[in-house]
Structures are given as C-alpha cells and as structure tokens.
Amino acid sequence: MRKASDRPTATVHEVARVAGVSAATVSRLLNGTAKVSDDKRQAIEQAIERLNYKPNVLAQNLKTGSSRTIGILTQSLASGYFADAMAGVDEALQGTGYAPLIVSGHWHADEEAERIELLIARRVDGLVILSGNLKDEQIL
Predict the structure, then answer these.
(1) How deeply is 71 buried, as exposed, middle or buried, from its count of CB atoms within 10 A (0-12, 13-18, 19+)?
(2) Distance (Å, rounded) from C-alpha 81 to C-alpha 70?
(3) Is the model's pTM score more than 0.70?
C-alpha cells in the first residue's frame, strides 16, 4: 500500500505545463521576484492546488544558501527548565519560516562540542546554546 509520502511530488515544470506558462513564470511568482499578471497568477495558483504542489525545500536551500533551521544545543531534553527554554525558542520561530533542530549534549562538554559540530555541518543558520559546560573559546 502506497502512502501519500510515496507519491511523486509535482514539479515547477508540471505546474507550468498545467497553468500554460513557463517554469520561469512559476518560479518568479513563487519567489516574489517579479510581477506576474493576474490571469497567469490565477492559473498558476489553480495548478498548484490541483497538483498539490509543494516547493522543494532542499532545492531552495541550495539556491539561497540558507537552511532555514536554527540549531539548539541543550544539556537535557528531559529537564523542565531546558524544555521550557526550547519551547520559548520554538514559539519565537513560529511564522518565521525557520524550524528548530534540537540536540542534547547530555551534560558532557565533549559531547556538546561534538553536537555543535554536527549542527554546523548541517548548515544551521544560527545556534542557541543552552549549556554552561562549554568554554567561550569552544563556542567561538
């Protein structure tokens, strides 16, 4: 049995074909980089809805150089204090297009440093460090 996630995702080119416009026009509308006439905008929006088009976030990230993620290093996922802090960061990110990526250092400075390297390797756009085990030199 196939799941919804197994279905092929519609592409910009398919949206363009269904809307009767060029892929560049679809891209300009989606990126907001140029004005698109109302009739073309309507055709594109209808094609997007009909095809259930979802932008390829990975492709966008490659193009913009932004991952739209914020790395959060915490000492403990189970601690009420750190859970409240992470919830506050998550709430602050709501509606910004950014998503949190949370890792734990389990109260060990070496593991925390390793986890920061992991977040950097994943190209997070920023870091929130909820830890007291790392020295300033390690953070820098």
Answers:
(1) buried
(2) 19
(3) no
Strands (E), the chain: 69-74, 99-104, 126-130
Residues 82-95: b if buried by 16+ CB within 10 A, e if exposed = beeebeebeeebee
Full pLDDT tens readout for the chain, 140 residues: 444 455 568 999 999 999 999 999 998 898 877 888 999 999 999 999 999 999 887 777 887 888 999 999 999 888 888 999 999 999 999 999 899 999 999 989 899 999 999 999 999 999 999 987 888 888 88
How many residues are there in the chain? 140
Q: Within 10 A of 51 (CB to CB), how many other CB atoms are there?
A: 16
